[in-house]
Design a protein that fits this description.
- It contains 15 helices and 18 strands.
- The chain is an alpha/beta fold.
- The strands form five sheets. Strands 1, 2, 7, 8, 9, 10 and 17 form a seven-stranded mixed sheet that branches. It has a four-stranded antiparallel sheet with strand order 12-15-14-13, with helices on one face. A three-stranded mixed sheet has the order 11-16-18, covered by helices on one side.
- Helix 1 links the parallel strand 1 and strand 2.
- Helix 1 packs parallel to helix 5, helix 4 crosses helix 12 and helix 13 runs parallel beside helix 15.
- The termini are far apart.
- About 55% of the residues are buried.
Length: about 500
């Protein structure tokens, strides 16, 4: 085993939340170690963020009302207050003054965009690739900071704990295993997209932080609230089509080119099919994500396809990054872009307070792996980067002041990466299939029971395998199985449809 690492603050993950936590701790003169599985910025979910970052534009009460409305009144009001009251300072301090992010402008002001369920234009953005314009300069800034060390291509395998306290993390690089001891540990490992077949997230987003924390005994909450984005390119090579596209006027059409169902639809029909969202919600394409996602799913089943019609806007000039992705895949956006719902965001996670503290001593969690209470049962568009930034800064501040201490750690076992990778690939296929079929956009009690049974067996197989060998792919598989089981179990225990958790009665399409 290689020599150990020590730090005042250890951050696991390098998205916007992890970067913000590292920056805040470093500003307090702490020695900060950032360990990340990513070997390039595009491996982090934050780099994939398209739409932008929500701001208050001087009216925190308005943003708060929209967050609560989108959550179906399930968000924690106190947590939302923390978000909106700290939003302007965090954005100005980090994104504008420190990183000088080149947000799009319109005249003398920023070009604030409109997105679903927002009552006004308040989204700062850079084209439809905001994440990469935030994360890449953020990582470069930290790389130059004298108080920060970055370990890339380094996975966290397990938390190092003793008697209810976290002492650090057992790390696994591509060459060797290393314990990292820290005065405080901040999990910022991102989401769970790797648990699903169609997702807007990197495939290595396997719920690592949630699983490690849960296995160590930390509390988790709201795991049933998995958000599915309504407009993901419908193929084996999916990508997100930002809500900002619909905010600028794009509409959804089904595959029905026959007589429309009503006069409203008749007026909005085109050769590409019927515009259907006005029949589902007064806000049509700008309804909350869960409403639009289920409508898209319903129309795909009924008519064979749904396309995003971008003809009402200058798509190539307004969204050049998305236009380039379409061109790379041979998609003619002028005839409509095929879309389907895809797993997008985990609203739950490791239960934390307003400073990101988890239930285990010296453990914090921020970003998508954390359950702050801001999102409740459904996240408002473009609040993920904001939540990660605000809670990252707060956790980084709160984590400072503890010295690293050492405790005994287990030795890593022999490696057999080729055999482990073959085993993991086969089991991941089974895991993703059962999550997609049973714990997806619509859930039935019998399907949730089936999922739990499959995932319990799968975790048992993985546990038996890791008794004899160590490989990153095995731990990712274990984490995905644990996280999937937590989602399925929480969904089975909540029989009330709310937000992105939708329960079907057996043998029907009606919700409770």
């Amino acid at each position: 085993m290689a020599d150990e690492h020590t730090a005042d603050v250890l951050v696991v993950g390098s998205g916007i939340a992890g970067c913000a936590a590292a920056l805040a701790a470093a500003r307090d003169d702490a020695d900060v170690l950032v360990a990340t599985k990513a070997s390039k910025p595009a491996d982090a979910s934050s780099d994939w963020a398209q739409g932008g970052i929500a701001t208050t534009r001087g009216d925190p009460a308005s943003l708060k009302a929209d967050v609560l409305d989108a959550s179906a009144a399930t968000a924690d009001e106190d947590a939302v207050d923390v978000l909106v009251e700290n939003a302007a300072d965090a954005v100005r301090d980090v994104l504008v003054d420190t990183l000088d992010v080149p947000f799009d402008e319109a005249g003398d002001d920023y070009d604030f965009a409109q997105e679903a369920a927002h009552s006004e234009e308040r989204i700062l953005h850079v084209d439809a690739n905001t994440g990469r314009h935030v994360l890449r300069p953020f990582l470069a800034h930290l790389d130059d900071h004298p108080n920060v060390r970055l370990l890339e291509d380094t996975a966290a395998l397990d938390l190092i704990t003793h008697e209810g306290r976290v002492y650090g993390v057992l790390l696994d690089s591509s060459q060797d295993g290393t314990p990292a001891f820290a005065g405080a540990t901040i999990l910022a490992t991102g989401g769970i997209g790797g648990c699903f077949r169609r997702t807007t997230n990197p495939e290595h987003a396997t719920g690592d932080g949630v699983a490690m924390a849960a296995l160590a005994g930390a509390g988790v909450a709201d795991m049933e609230y998995v958000q599915f984005h309504p407009t993901v390119y419908d193929s084996d090579d999916p990508f997100l089509l930002s809500e900002a596209v619909r905010g600028e006027g794009a509409v959804l059409r089904n595959g029905d080119v026959s007589e429309p169902r009503d006069s409203v639809a008749r007026e909005t029909q085109s050769p590409g099919g019927e515009r259907f969202m006005p029949a589902y919600h007064p806000d049509a394409e700008l309804a909350p994500r869960d409403v639009v996602a289920r409508a898209v799913d319903t129309e795909r089943e009924a008519t064979g396809e749904v396309t995003l019609d971008v003809s009402p806007l200058e798509f190539e000039s307004e969204f050049p990054g998305l236009a380039a992705k379409c061109e790379d895949r041979g998609v003619d956006w002028e005839t409509g872009i095929p879309v389907a719902p895809g797993q997008h965001f985990l609203c739950g996670g490791v239960a934390v307070d307003h400073e990101g503290r988890a239930s285990l001593d010296r453990l914090f969690a921020v970003g998508e792996c954390a359950r702050t209470g801001v999102h409740g049962a459904n996240r408002l568009a473009s609040t993920s980067l904001l939540e990660g930034l605000v809670w990252g800064l707060r956790a980084g501040d709160a984590a400072v002041g503890h010295e690293a201490e050492r405790v005994e750690t287990p030795d890593l076992l022999d490696r057999d990466p080729d055999l482990s990778a073959r085993f993991a690939d086969e089991k991941f296929h089974r895991l993703r299939r059962v999550m997609e079929e049973c714990v997806g956009l619509r859930r039935a009690p019998s399907d949730l029971q089936r999922a739990q049974s499959v995932l319990r067996r799968l975790k048992g197989e993985v546990d038996a395998y890791v008794r004899t060998r160590t490989a990153r792919s095995l731990y990712e598989l274990r984490n995905a199985a644990v996280t999937g089981l937590l989602v399925a179990r929480a969904a089975a225990e909540n029989d009330q449809s709310v937000g992105c958790h939708y329960v079907e009665r057996e043998g029907s399409n009606a919700s409770h």
